[in-house]
Amino acid sequence: MKFVDAHTHMELFAFKEVDLEHISSLEDLLRAVESFRGESLVAWGWDERRIGVFLERKHIDHIDIPVLLIRVDGHVGVANTRAVELLGLKGDDRFDPEKGHLFEETLWEAANRLKPGGERLARCLLKGLKKAEEMGIVEVHDFVSPEVMEAYLSLEELPVRVVVMPYYDGYKEVLRLAGDRFPVGWVKVYVDGSIGARTAYLREPYADREDWRGVLLKGWEEIARIIAELEEEGLRVSLHAIGDGAIEECLKAFEEVGPRLRYHRIEHAELITEDQALRAKRLGLLICAQPNFNPYFMGTYVKALGEERARRINPLRMLDSLKVDMVFGSDMMPFDPGFGFRYAERVLGRRKAEYYYYGWREEGRYIKG
Ligand SMILES: [Zn+2]
User: Fold this and answer.
1) pTM over 0.85
2) Which of 91, 114, 137 is the endpoint of a domain?
3) Which of 43, 101, 158, 365 is the most buried (most CB within 10 A)?
4) How far is the CA of 188 from the centre of ligand 1 (A)?
């Protein structure tokens, strides 16, 4: 089996210098962290259900380099005193000094400040690409900042083809750096958040939060302006939109602009309705879906959205039957195409699952070169 993973964040391998994901006791976790050699450590993937304890500052305070350990869900992490001091953290609703817990934006700001850069980052990316190769991935569509782009450029040979997907902030710098050494894909813009964090933007309120419909980061007018700007440069957009409300803003923006280019992308489109799917098709859009999300997140979906909406989330069969253009990517949850493939195969059958994971690549339809 060959795969294209059309939605990756290889930069997360910067948080896997110590791999916490497969550790199943506090002792093993501490042994792994203690034996790490480096000036600071950010590691991702602990889970109290496996290690038997919800990590607190006291567990890691004896370690004499700054350490930040991120829980598997990415919404909370724990820092030791060396890290707290280095980052200058003060207690507020996103940092609990007693337990050393950091939440949401504060957590990710800290992770970005402590994570490896330069050559060390490049080594992490290479490790990730080698893992990709082992799993049968031949191409990743990877979201990159200028810093990650520079790290890629410092690598001599890549085991897997990397299509770079610049974030809208800094995309011109990424284009300049990529030159003709890297194929450039789509430019990433966030329209909403995630269902787990209750920030995906819905048309109807969440099931477990009264009157709360999530967060719209960009409305249709701003999205339309960005699409027009990118098309001017011959570029296509990749819009992160999960809730039906956010998808609606994207479609409205495209309908307003009347795109000249085909295959602008919507990432996730988890709650896309049939009517919206038909409009996306009419606009020549490409949906990048995550079959792995259903087996991975169904518990969260039911809680956040209720049974009815959870049942029609990530509607692979509907999109396929309407012949909406679609590709599959993991979004690193988990970074394992086989996991999503097994679900897609069950829903769509083997031949179609293979097509959306790889087959389209042969046609060279969505990407040149
Ligand atoms: Zn993503």
Assistant:
1) yes
2) 114
3) 43
4) 9
